[in-house]
Amino acid sequence: NAGVTQTPKFQVLKTGQSMTLQCAQDMNHEYMSWYRQDPGMGLRLIHYSVGAGITDQGEVPNGYNVSRSTTEDFPLRLLSAAPSQTSVYFCASSEGLAAYEQYFGPGTRLTVT
Amino acid sequence: AQKITQTQPGMFVQEKEAVTLDCTYDTSDQSYGLFWYKQPSSGEMIFLIYQGSYDEQNATEGRYSLNFQKARKSANLVISASQLGDSAMYFCAMREYNTNAGKSTFGDGTTLTVKP
Questions:
Q1: Residues 78-97 of B with CB under 8 A from A
Q2: Dihedral of CA A95/B5/B92/B73: which sign?
Q3: Distance from CA of B100 to the nearest CA of A (A)
Q4: Backbone angles phi, psi at A33, to 5 degrees
Q5: Which residue in chain A has the smallest CA separation from B107?
Q6: Which segments of B40-107 are extended strands (E)?
Q7: What tens-digit pLDDT sequence spans chain A (113 residues)?
Q8: Which of B33, B43, B91 sits opposite A100 (nearest CB)?
């Protein structure tokens, strides 16, 4: 199993550009999440999904969209990048709502200039 | 109010000694899980240990143990026999299963440095 994969690993955007961060998992997990980690801080939840076709907002959803058309994939879209979105983005998955372990991807380091 | 509080921004420990990293949490949910993750300088998030709110025994995983004091709402991580490779950022996190749809909340982390 590849686990949770994220692409790209690094990305530089100009203010106003849009892009999609890709996340895929091959463990047939129902629950997937996107987090951002700003320097010296913990992870903050952006959006999450409890299954294909079902998504909901987390703590910091503004400026981001998600969709979940398949169990495997959970892309995160930045609509119009802003410098405040410079961060490291992590995707995670778990078997279900009450699963005790989340599996994290390696992260995407995004810089918006 | 912060749901997860880690009051120690940085900690130092001598190699081979034990160290306790503090974590307090705030929830009204009866069903929740508490987690500790390690983030080395390479950046990945590594799951260490889990404690469920209904678990009566403290969780242990090798050199890691979780000191769970439910009434005090604390979930401290104890690392025994510290190794140089334990130097990393450590995050405490909580998932609330009834009131918060299983969403995770993370603390701001504690940077642990193990001295030789």
A1: 91, 93, 95, 97
A2: negative
A3: 10
A4: -140, 155
A5: A42
A6: 46-52, 60-61, 64-69, 74-79, 88-96, 104-106
A7: 779 999 999 999 999 999 999 999 999 999 999 999 998 888 999 999 999 999 999 999 999 999 999 999 999 999 999 999 999 999 999 987 666 688 999 999 999 99
A8: B33
